[in-house]
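Treating backbone geometry as a discrete language has practical consequences that deserve illustration. The sequence in question and its structure tokens are set out directly beneath this paragraph.
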Amino acid sequence: MTRTLTLKNRFQGNSTIIENDFIDHHMAKANGEYVKVYLLLLRHLHAENHALSISALADYLECTEKDVLRAFKHWSKEGLLKIDYDEAGNICGLAIGNEIAVSEGKAAPIVQKKTTAKTLNSTKKENQDELRQLYFVAEQYIGKPLSASEIKKINFFFDTLNFSIDLIEYLIEYCVENGHRTFHYIESVALAWSDSGIKTVEEAKQNTSSYTKNCFSILNAFGIKGRSPAPAEMTYIKKWTEEFGFSLELILEACNRTINNTHKPDFKYTDTILSNWLANNVQSINDVARVDAAYQQEKESKKRRTTKSANTNNRFNNFEGRSYDMTSLEQQLLNTQ
């Protein structure tokens, strides 16, 4: 069901008025897509009681509904937009400037659960409104109302890991778009980002872009297509890239050797190869050639030792050797004649 937003016109005439304050203090530092959303909202204020949906805004601007919601949140933080929610936590109206535009019915706070109110007590008052909006955005991504424990995890990202609201939103968006909606997984990614010193959305995007490329390259080497790594597979990939510190080139070489030897994707077999390389201080493909040569030399040496041992233990050699004095034997033969 498509929800609509009802806007009220507070301007006169067939024109769109943009305040100088917006141009002087807000426009230059804002994302261009956010500016487009704001201007389009101003434009629709001139259609009295015009019903405008988020999907219609997204279609007109050729962006996603998530982009529109992010723009709403940005202008709300800037103090230029007030968002009202119904009792279900859905957006029911917007206010631009000092005029509140709401749909029929009384607007309600973003989240009315008692658990949410209790959870917010530990958060600074000035951040509570931003967190409430974040809860709403998170629910749209997850596709269900947040539980008390999930809200606490979001607060943990904010208060303890010192993630910004924007970074937490991107964290949830990234995990959901990769097929992971559980907060257990989201928290594991958050902790990994924190350990890596990631503090901005841009840093997270650079990290995830590189990491995603590595994951899908590894799956492709195994002949696995059309899905993200399973949790057990991701554990191996993290081990090889983070704990072992191997380059993608070395990991793909180990994957190729696994397929050649087993004819199937086997993360455990690949892990054995990489563990051996780690023990032999392999850091490049040249080092792999060195380890291969040493292995082949040891294999041939062992084969020679085995062959020599087999010859020594041959049953035709298991008798005591005898020595003869040929001159003495000839003399004895003559004396008997």
